[in-house]
Specification:
- This protein has 168 residues and is of the alpha/beta class.
- It has two domains: 58 residues; 83 residues, Winged helix-like DNA-binding domain superfamily/Winged helix DNA-binding domain (Arc Repressor Mutant, subunit A), CATH 1.10.10.
- It has six helices and six strands; from the N terminus they run E-E-E-H-E-H-H-E-H-H-E-H.
- The strands form two sheets. The protein has a four-stranded mixed β-sheet with strand order 3-2-1-4, covered by helices on one side.
- A hairpin with a 4-residue loop joins strand 2 and strand 3.
- 30% of the residues are buried.
């Protein structure tokens, strides 16, 4: 059984989805993962992981780094899952480029090169926005690129973490 709740953030309404143990989705209303078919598959009900996620978001939107992490479950290809795991390693208040993640993955796999665009496509499939911090990935020249919640929100999330986005 999967459950859905909404959360009112300073950047707009966010949907949280999960099962009895794991957070399986987090996205801004009206953006990439917002569709009636998905939402009809969930029951609107309170469960521990969604309440824990709301607490995490409360702390985060106060401009603080939460000292705990909700348990997440990723249903993705092995490549996308590996990219998302690397996103989880990006420290609060820091950014990395798509090219850097591609470089790290290529090195781990023992290959000479990996496409930053392939990494970008995997980042774009992140079903758990903010908690898996895809907003911390920027373009090779330091510019803001792609975010399912919109570039304005990406910039706001980075500023919330103390990152100067004026130069981006």
């Amino acid at each position: 059984m999967y459950f859905l709740q909404s959360y009112q953030s300073p950047l707009g309404e966010i949907y949280l989805a999960g099962n009895d143990e794991y957070l399986t989705g987090l996205w801004f209303k009206g953006k990439q993962y917002d569709n009636n078919a998905l939402m009809s598959e969930y029951r609107v009900e309170t469960v521990r992981v969604l309440e824990e996620t709301k607490s995490w978001l409360d702390i985060y939107f106060q401009g603080k780094k939460p000292d705990f992490m909700p348990q997440v479950e990723i249903n993705a290809s092995s490549f996308t899952a590996s990219v998302l795991e690397h996103l989880r390693e990006i420290p609060y208040g820091k950014t990395v480029t798509y090219g850097y993640i591609a470089y790290i993955l290529a090195r781990e796999r023992g290959i000479g090169h990996m496409s930053a665009q392939a990494v970008g496509n995997a980042v774009g499939r992140n079903p758990i926005s903010i908690i898996i911090p895809c907003h911390r990935v920027i373009g090779s020249n330091g510019n803001l690129t792609g975010y399912a919640g919109g570039l304005e929100r990406k910039a706001a999330l980075l500023r919330l973490e103390g990152i100067d986005t004026e130069k981006m």
